[in-house]
Amino acid sequence: MKRNIRTIALALVFFLCGAFTTGLIINRKSTMNLLDNKKVAQVAIIVKDIEKSAAAYAELFNTDVPGISVSQEPAGKPTLYEGEHTQARAKLAFFNLENVQIELIQPVDKPSTWNDFLEKHGEGIHHIAFWVDGMKKHVNMFKDAGMPEVQSGGWDGGEYSYIDAGDKLGIVIELLENYNK
Amino acid sequence: MKRNIRTIALALVFFLCGAFTTGLIINRKSTMNLLDNKKVAQVAIIVKDIEKSAAAYAELFNTDVPGISVSQEPAGKPTLYEGEHTQARAKLAFFNLENVQIELIQPVDKPSTWNDFLEKHGEGIHHIAFWVDGMKKHVNMFKDAGMPEVQSGGWDGGEYSYIDAGDKLGIVIELLENYNK
Predict the structure, then answer these.
(1) pLDDT averaged over chain B?
(2) Which of A79, B2, B125, B177 would bridge B135 by S-S if both were Cys, CB 3.0 to 4.6 A apart?
(3) Which of A125, A141, A144, A164 to mutate to test the interface with B (most CBs of B within 10 A)?
(4) Integer CA distances (angstroms), B83 to B70, B88, B153, in order
(5) What residues make up the domain containing A117?
(6) How much is the ipTM here?
(7) Domain count for chain A
(8) Which residues in chain B are contacts of A122 at CB distance < 8 A?
């Protein structure tokens, strides 16, 4: 009788250990989402001459030619390329379409992921972007999944990270975080 | 008095001619929209191995791995590349995100715009797509604007045209028309 009780107790302990471990795994998976949402924020296009391209896209979309801005480097958020500070910048123009923002990017100086693309491919679609909550957490998750950060920086009110997902996804993914939302 | 009436009549004729011409110009402009809407329907990515990529994108989007289909050639709608019939096909996989559809495309055989991209750039973002009404009209408008069609074809229920907008926009644009809407 005592042996039976011991066997049952032991089985119960194993069962609980198994359930706990499974719970941890399930819980781990549920916190392992690479993205917070399934909504593309931006489609970004590298161009050589942003004034010319902004006018051409304005004609395509039958809209006003947008203003051109230059990428920022706010205090405390240096522009990093492969972990090193870079002087590279970009000229930017935005078109707010009905469901997504189209971003035109003209690389200025180097090194940057923008300039790498222009030198390798010429003009073309560089990345799709997603808004996230908690940049560091997401960058680490992408890194753990074999997709390292290639460039990071910020603007007055947020920060970005370019993820080199070439090996896994064949593209660059941009993560965006808005501090003021 | 008579001269005054003649002057007024002449002024009226000039005014009406001016108004008519302006109306024609405005009307012409309003029918010259290259696109019918400002909504990106698809962002399409060329991949080498669609089974591998579909699994990787399913992990990115935390969703099921979609089925793989092959591009069609319905009766009366041959697949044309640079105006000539081509045997080229593509394996396709679709992810319906919240605001846009992501399409994975693995080129099969050649010549095609899909295979051109893969040979020139490797994997990457090939085009953005827009739904239109009246494919022929839109293809002609793009052609008149210096953006010729590079490939066309269809599926059971619709047709597509790839516009080589490289010179003007730095990208390929796909036009889609749905016969069953």
Answers:
(1) 90
(2) B177
(3) A125
(4) 21, 13, 11
(5) 31-178
(6) 0.84
(7) 2
(8) 170
